[in-house]
Design a protein that fits this description.
It contains 18 helices and 19 strands. The strands form 5 sheets. The protein has a 9-stranded mixed β-sheet with strand order 9-10-8-7-6-5-4-1-13, sandwiched between helices. It has a 3-stranded antiparallel β-sheet with strand order 14-15-16, covered by helices on one side. The protein binds iron/sulfur cluster (SF4). The site of iron/sulfur cluster has 12 residues, from loops.
Length: about 450
C-alpha cells in the first residue's frame, strides 16, 4: 500500500521523457539512409516485430498526442494501403534474410479507419511478404465510436487476439472538454462483441489529468472500467504539450485543467481502485489481471518497453511501416517522414521514407538496457549488464550513483545485490530515476517533455 501523499508526489514531479525508448525519440536527427540499408542487410533471421501506423481518424480529439490525419474520406484508407504494399515489398527486398515476424501491431490514429476489405488486403500482403510465425501475437488499436461488427468479425478471422480500446474518461463534462464523445454502451458493446468473436486480450486506455476531471467523476469512470472487466488497463497521464501540438490549446480553454497535486490525487486514487479490484500494477502505468500473459511476464521480469509501451515479448528488432513509424534494432533507431505526402513520394520513388534516426554507441546501449529494466521492473541488477557489455558498472556510473542520494526517497544502490532499487514512491516516479542515467537530458531540454506525474 502506498503511503505517499498527493502533495509529496506532486512536489517531486518534473518534466521528462516517457522512456518508451532510450535515447528518447527527441534525439533522432537527419540520418544517412545508407546507414539503415546496411543495418537491414545484417538483420539476418532476427526475431522481428512489425508495427504498421494507420494515421487516419474520423475526427480529432483535442488532447491527442499521436500523428493523426482527421478525415471522413474513407477512400484515403484504400490509397494508403496501396502505398503500404509498395513499401512492404521494398523493405523485404532490402532485408538480408526473410525474418520471422513474432508480433504484428497495427496502431494509429485509428487502424479501424480501414474498411474490412482493406484490413484483409493488408494482412494478406504481410503474410505473402514475410514469414509470420503461426503463434505471432496480432494486436490492433480501436476507436469504439467507429468500430463495426463487420470489422470485429474480420479481425477475428484474420487471427487478431489483442485489442487496445480507447476510452480516456466516461464523464460527459470531460468528453465535452476533449471533443470525444463515447458512451459506456458503445464501449460495452465492443467488448462483448469482441469476446463473442474470441478476441480474448482486451486493453482499455484511460487518461488522468484531463480538463474537468474531479476525484468524484474519475472514481465513477474507474468504477465503469472495472465493471467492463478488461484484461489490461493502461492509465496514462495527460501530456499537455501545446507548443508542439497546437490543437491542445483547445483543451486549455475547455475547462479547469487539474494542477500537479490534483493530477497526483487522481493517479493515487486510480491505483487504489484498480488494485482493490484485483489488477496487478505493472511497470509505470499498466494494470493486468493476475495470471494474464502480461502479469506473468512482469513477475518473471520479462517485460520489454517499446514505442508501443509495455510488451510481454521482447523482439530486439521492430520494423515500422507507414507514415511516422519508428523502427528499432539493437544499434539503430529511425523514423519515417511524419507528413503523408513526403512518406508517399519517397516510397513511390523507391527510396527509404526516412526522416531522422540515431546510431546507438556503446554508452547508449548500456544506458538503454539499464533504463528499460528500471522502467519494466523498478529495479536493475548490474551484474548481468556488466557481463553483457563487459564494463564495471560502479566505476562507469560513479557520478550517477553518487547522485542517487539526492533522490533518496525514490531509489538506492543496494550493495549486497549490486542493484539499483526503486522505493514504492520511486516506482511511480521511475521516470525521475531514469533521468539520472540519461546523458542527453539538459535542464532546458526537459521542457520538451510531459510531467512525470
Ligand atoms: S481517436 Fe485516438 S488517435 Fe484519433 S484523434 Fe482521438 S486520441 Fe487521437
Amino acid at each position: 500500500m502506498l503511503v505517499i501523499s498527493s502533495r509529496d508526489l506532486a512536489r517531486q514531479a518534473v518534466r521528462g521523457p516517457r522512456y518508451t525508448s532510450y535515447p528518447p525519440a527527441t534525439e533522432l536527427r537527419p540520418i544517412d539512409p545508407s546507414t539503415i540499408d546496411a543495418e537491414l542487410v545484417t538483420l539476418g533471421d532476427a526475431a522481428v516485430a512489425l508495427y504498421i501506423h494507420i494515421p487516419f481518424c474520423r475526427s480529432l480529439c483535442w488532447y491527442c498526442g499521436c500523428n493523426v490525419i482527421p478525415t471522413r474520406d474513407a477512400s484515403r484508407g484504400d490509397r494508403y494501403v496501396d502505398v503500404l504494399a509498395l513499401e512492404m515489398t521494398q523493405l523485404a527486398a532490402r532485408l538480408g534474410a526473410r525474418p520471422v515476424i513474432r508480433e504484428l501491431a497495427l496502431g494509429g490514429g485509428s487502424p479501424n479507419f480501414l474498411a474490412p476489405g482493406s484490413l484483409r488486403t493488408l494482412i494478406t500482403m504481410i503474410e505473402a511478404t514475410f514469414d509470420l510465425a503461426p503463434d505471432a501475437r496480432r494486436s490492433i488499436e480501436l476507436d469504439p465510436r467507429t468500430t463495426t461488427a463487420a470489422q470485429l468479425a474480420e479481425l477475428a478471422t484474420l487471427g487478431f487476439t489483442s485489442l487496445s480500446i480507447g476510452v480516456q474518461d466516461f464523464a460527459l463534462a470531460v468528453q465535452d472538454a476533449i471533443h470525444r464523445h463515447q458512451s459506456r454502451t458503445q464501449t460495452a458493446w465492443l467488448i462483448a462483441e469482441a469476446r463473442r468473436h474470441g478476441l480474448a486480450d482486451l486493453n482499455l486506455d484511460i487518461v488522468y489529468g484531463l480538463p474537468c476531471q474531479t476525484p468524484t467523476s474519475f472514481a465513477a469512470t474507474l468504477d465503469t472500467v472495472v465493471e467492463l472487466q478488461p484484461d489490461r488497463i493502461a492509465l496514462f497521464g495527460y501530456a499537455h504539450l501545446p507548443d508542439k501540438l497546437p490543437h491542445q490549446r483547445l483543451v486549455e480553454k475547455a475547462g479547469h485543467m487539474p494542477d500537479g497535486e490534483e493530477r497526483a490525487t487522481l493517479l493515487l486514487a486510480a491505483i487504489e481502485r484498480l488494485t482493490a479490484a484485483g489488477y496487478v500494477h505493472i511497470g509505470l502505468d499498466h494494470f493486468a489481471r493476475p495470471g494474464s500473459a502480461m502479469a506473468r511476464a512482469a513477475s518473471e521480469q520479462r517485460l520489454a518497453r517499446t514505442f508501443q509501451g509495455y510488451v510481454e515479448h521482447r523482439a530486439d528488432t521492430v520494423l515500422g511501416l507507414g507514415v511516422s513509424a519508428i523502427s528499432t534494432t539493437p544499434r539503430v533507431f529511425w523514423q519515417h517522414h511524419v507528413e503523408v505526402e513526403a512518406w508517399e513520394s519517397a516510397v513511390r520513388a523507391g527510396a527509404l521514407p526516412v526522416a531522422r534516426g540515431i546510431v546507438l554507441d556503446l554508452d547508449d546501449q548500456i544506458r538503454r538496457a539499464l533504463i528499460e529494466r528500471l522502467m519494466c521492473d523498478g529495479r536493475v541488477e548490474l551484474g548481468p549488464l556488466e557481463e553483457q557489455f563487459a564494463f564495471a558498472a560502479c566505476t562507469y556510473f560513479e557520478a550517477e550513483l553518487a547522485r542517487l542520494p539526492e533522490i533518496q526517497q525514490l531509489a538506492t544502490y543496494d550493495v549486497a545485490h549490486h542493484s539499483i532499487e526503486t522505493t514504492p514512491e520511486g516506482r511511480l516516479l521511475v521516470r525521475n530515476v531514469c533521468m539520472a542515467f540519461d546523458r542527453y537530458l539538459q535542464p532546458l531540454g526537459a521542457q520538451r517533455f510531459s510531467a512525470t506525474i
